[in-house]
């Protein structure tokens, strides 16, 4: 191109690139859409076409383009200026730092509030003022004034640098200097201080280092300079490009745009302009090819609009003609259906569904057989007509296409075990049928049961049995041959003579065989070395392997709480229990509670939706996951959950928040991800939803040949105008040109267009406001403010909520959001409850409210007085009036002392009472006089000595006596003065003397020696030596001669001499006798018997004769015969063991009680529990137990338990805790039908029954008879369910929808009348839609009602669960389900809201009726009414089973009718219901699809969600439908794991150890069945598995907690005998 276009093109490209670069720069400026490059190129392409018509005016031809370029250049200049301003503003913002709203200062590593003061060191004081730290030196401290260095003065704490390499610090007059550290990494340039610094770039980057400051920018450090460059991207040749996440260069977006419509990559489509063009999108390019039409089969094909190829208009065959799409039945073959399709006839066989097993043949002219009769064995039968059978004992008839047979009736027989005769149908009494075998009359047969031999006989249909005992052969001694006896026979076993054994089942008994007689006795136990031993099961003697304490058994090392005193923590160690007091942790609430048998107070829990949450716990609301709750002091405080900001611009509404980026919400509509849609307000833009974000692009317009194209209203692309005229403007003025838009002066909201001289005006279209509360703008709703509750609010304005007093609302860009008013934390510890927020204008203290300034008594201490001042509570001792006494007394129950008594040093005295002084009890006496105590010393006795000394109580005492120059201590006795014959004593300082009394003498001749006082007898004299009377001696060499000085009746004493007598050497053999040695008189024994020397005086020896005991006395052995104790046994039973002197007995005879006691056994006297006796070798020894002094706390009672001697203290009410309730001592209750418990002295003791093994057949299942612990086998049951709004799945599997809101028969035994189950429905949600409200079960005269909230009444009386009424029914609560068991095998499950399930054994097959169907195995005839007729519609069927309502207030009920709630709810509700119910067909339920088809439940789910409407009720409806399908899956043996974090969540009390399980064990492990093997427990379980909270593996359930098996209370197991359970506590 040689003209101006060639010169302009480079300029255009340059400006366009500048515009693109500026628009993508970080400035973020967005200009109105400039003319695109494609538009400019379009002008270039149009130039040749126009050159022929405008050849004479080339300048005019390019003038519009030049004007556009000038405007584009001006816009580029303006864009550069705006970007410069933006960069300056960004740099300013980056230099800013965020500060807190209130000014704070930073110092000493922490933040200081405004006005705070602190000292960084001892010489400096700092203060925070206006967010700035001001520090000054302290005055009056000389050492803090500063430092001097090189002639310069520095302040205390100042840092300075005397040179470039040194840093100094002045502190308290001392200067400390350090060298500046050199950096390890790069630095800008080396210096004198750091000569080896490594050069680098700012930011710590080394020379040559490369890094990425942004994902698509690479920077390099070169010679101290940072050089950065962006990515180099290849040029793209596509319509639209985008940059993928994590990539730097753009790529072509897959897909094409053709004729204004976008197409995905690989899509194939027809051209909208030419239907004969087949196009495809490949690699972003559209390729089109013409379509080849096939030859037409008809003579006159027709070309229809929008089609490329002609098609046939109809079909012709045999002279008949049919239109395209018409269907007809082939003549002569009613089972052949034909259809005309574009001139072709297609035929197919009609499919007939088999509704019954033996349908009647089709009627003439029809195809399918009917169930109004039977066709069997080539013959037709009418319904009700008898049908022959091969069994002569049964009678059959045709019933609606099926054959029903029943046995022939038999007359009753008068015997219990009638037999059967071949060829006869009825049993007769001519024989017996017993345990499945036939016996003839008079026949005898034998059975063996449990090792016993049983002999039975049949007599005329009656069987009688008796047990046969095996004879024991007697022992005989034959005259000749070997001896076979003696031997012992015990329990059928033979034992040889002398053998010892332990009998089976009696581990504590030892037996032996003596002379053919078995002798058995108890095994003797030695006392265990611990205080609390345990008698283990099967063991004879107690052991220390565990502790038995207050009736409970604890393992060694186990910690537990004392059952009698919950404030004592105990530990079992080596069989001994040691206890100590419990330390209670501090509580965090103002009103802690203490429960019964609870030591430490704790904060109350919260109960929300029948779930328990611990104080302080944060949790999601059980029924509304969009609410977050917190438990505080027993109340659950809930508020809407805060929504995080969505990561996309146009998210869809999620469960709680609008944050679902898997689609787009744009212009008031919702679009799935990847959807294309037109712009809601601009028809010329096409939009696409991409992961929550919306991208809109303008459509491309074809090139035009006219110089000035115009854009018509409602069109997207300009068109070439026709020659036309202008239009007059309203109000005069310059006329408007053709195609000119203008507005009317009086109505700016209307826009007019001049078209060929005529004016057409229309109101400006208002786009949908993207806000929820727009205000009315000049023409359209505007989001620059809010219109809320009839008032205007500016954007950003906060205002109190007009509807909720404690909520604050915010208007933001046309939408109003309200939330509870944020309460600032109260500045006081006990704020009062204000209207919205806690306020300090009063006090709330321990649950009571008080005004500010109010005084009130302390609720915790009655003698304290508290005052409320501005939210603060101060408590102190209540002031008392001043008293005029010095030692007042505070009586019990009073707060102030009185002068009516005295309290003196801890001692209480009444008025006028005298008592010893507590400070000096021995020397002072005190007297109480009107509240004052006066004390005085006791008077001293006068001292009777001249020089007393101070003694006790400082009284004068005499401690010694001075006489004849000698001092004698007080109390000493001494002789008087010589010759006085007196005996003196010093007493209290005085000497008292008495004359000696001389003893009388029996001798006539008495001598008084010189200086003596009393006379004495004369002595004996032998060989010049004197001997006193009574003294003996050996006169000569003969050691056997002894002389003694003896007094004589008359005359002096004389010597009497005689030979000594030798003692008898008892027990000394003759060979051991030794002759006396020198100076010895008597012989001795060589054995130890003779060693009676002075060193052995008092010793005892045992001589060979056991009946003697010898003692060494007076150098002689004195032997004494032993006395034998009295024995209690007869003389014939006594025996003397070898080496013993006295006889013994093997047992003792207690004559008073008439019984015998084994040796070593001890017992208590039955008449006196304090006497304990024991048997020792036939001798009864008893001792009396002494009881220690017992002092019980106030209110406690002294009790003596049976069999114990001493009393003990018992609490006033020794109750037990069971499931959070207090149970009185002695009360019994039933935990379940297998377990009964009782409260014994504060301890729960339980008995649990174990069932015998149960084995049911393949067509049987265990069932529970009410009141029985052990199940029995019944025919396998079938179930019927009502769920949702409501839907009924019958016993035979048919799904019905019925919306009546009255009472109806759900399931009934219509033949035997055993039971009837009724349901009462209630209107909920939309009009005409009902839900199950309650269930009534009628069992004879008893009516059980299962109500909302899992409440149960029996005959109108509320009952607590579990409830038993033998033998009719048993009702229990398992997890979240109420289960009713009734006698005939009926089981009803009720979830307490809307879902009920009825199970009956298959023995009721064919005799049921009601909404659950007839249970005959065929679903097609379930719509039978009470008259037995099939009804045409489900509504007519449901209304036919209506019954009168039960007791209670009357209400208006409506009959059911055919309702389609989705039609009334609209398309959007149906679409949303389909999407939400799609989870039924998704992967969580996929394993169940093959056993339970999901389609009926999916339809029911959509039905329910349409009926429920939007909101939280829809979530409950969805969960009901999903749970109903999951329940059927569990019955079929598949357990789907379908719940999610936000889908039908079930909360479990984690603090009690529970976890959720979709199908946990229906009979879980408890403390009462943990001894039963799992297989046996499952075999006996009669409950279905239901979702709920279970205990994890390894733990057992007990009183609503998961605990370890070791923590269970002791359970005594019983056999097959069923204990009759008493009522539950409180029942």
UniProtKB/TrEMBL annotation:
Gene3D superfamilies: 6.20.200.20, Complement Module, domain 1 (2.10.70.10). Residues 145-198, 195-253, 254-313, 313-372, 372-430, 486-545, 545-604, 604-662, 662-721, 725-784, 784-841, 841-900, 959-1018, 1018-1086, 1083-1146, 1146-1210, 1214-1274 form the VWFC domain. Pfam families: VWC, VWC2L_2nd, VWD. Residues 1278-1454 form the VWFD domain. Its main location: secreted. CDD domains: TIL. Residues 62-96 form a coiled coil. The keyword Kinase does not apply. This is Kielin cysteine rich BMP regulator. It comes from Felis catus (Cat). The lineage of its organism: Eukaryota, Metazoa, Chordata, Craniata, Vertebrata.
